[in-house]
Amino acid sequence: MRSSLLAVILVALAGCRPHGNTQNPKFAAAAEAHDPIAVYEALEAQIDAQTDKPSDREDAYALISSWEEDTAAYAFARAAIAGRLAENRGLQAGGLVTEAEAYARKAREKEPDFREGAATHLLGSLYVAAPSRLLKHGDSETGIELLEKEVEAHPERPIAQLRLASGYITLGDSDSAKEPLCAAKGMEDRLGAGDRRLLAKLIEEAGGAAALACPAPVGGAAE
Question: What InterPro entries is this protein classified in (predicted)?
Fold first, then answer.
């Protein structure tokens, strides 16, 4: 079974460039501060709370793409927001995936561990699930390797474990997903609401909590 990660990078061979409202009041503070990460965080907060509208993703993208900065922060925000818009646009996503790849790569080049590997998680997930014809520098093998290396370097980061598990399940490898799923589950309290929902979905896709048979936490009992 494919994971919900696929929704983020569904693409088509053609599509229009989005034309949103750069004056959306939900992003007014971020726009006034000219802060790309604030735009990204404002959109993610809405998505986490499940209060976002399709127009919000259009508007966040219109705002971020009206700027251009040579920084890791801007490159990551641009990549992430393009990915979020692609999630909504599905088969009309056009070149948003290619754009997300380019800006995620730029963020990593400028600051390899930006926001604790956020650009690497984004890029690895993109390579795992996106059609290779729309990517210039990687494929599913590249993506899994990126995500595996992140977990090897930072096993204490729940989001790294979650993204790796999602990548495995996207590729139909539920067995490999069990270890990072257990690790993410053990650090679930450090995940945002949206990622906790994704974790629950991935555990179900991997066969449920019983099938995972996660070891009991040290000094405690298994749930």
Answer: TPR-like_helical_dom_sf
Spatial separation of the C-alpha atoms in residues 44 and 148, rounded to whole Å: 25
Residue reference for tokens 């700027």: 67
pTM over 0.70: yes
Report yes or no: 151 and 161 within 8 Å, Cβ to Cβ: yes
Burial 62-96 (b: 16+ CB within 10 A, else e): bbbbeeeeeebbbbbbbbbbbbbbbbbbeeebbbb
CB-neighbour burial class of residue 161 (10 A; exposed 0-12, middle 13-18, buried 19+): buried
pLDDT greater at residue 206 or residue 91: 206
Name the residue with higher pLDDT: 97 or 146.
146
With beta carbons less than 8 A apart as the criterion, state whether 97 and 130 touch: yes
Q: Is residue 1 over pLDDT 60?
A: no
Q: What is the secondary structure of 44-82 as a DSSP string?
A: HHHHHTT---HHHHHHHHHHHHT----SHHHHHHHHHHH
Nearest Cα to 21, choosing from 67, 59, 54? 59
Report which of 173, 159, 167, 144 is spatially closest to residue 8, judged by C-alpha positions. Answer: 167
Query: Tell me, what's the pLDDT at 92?
Result: 64
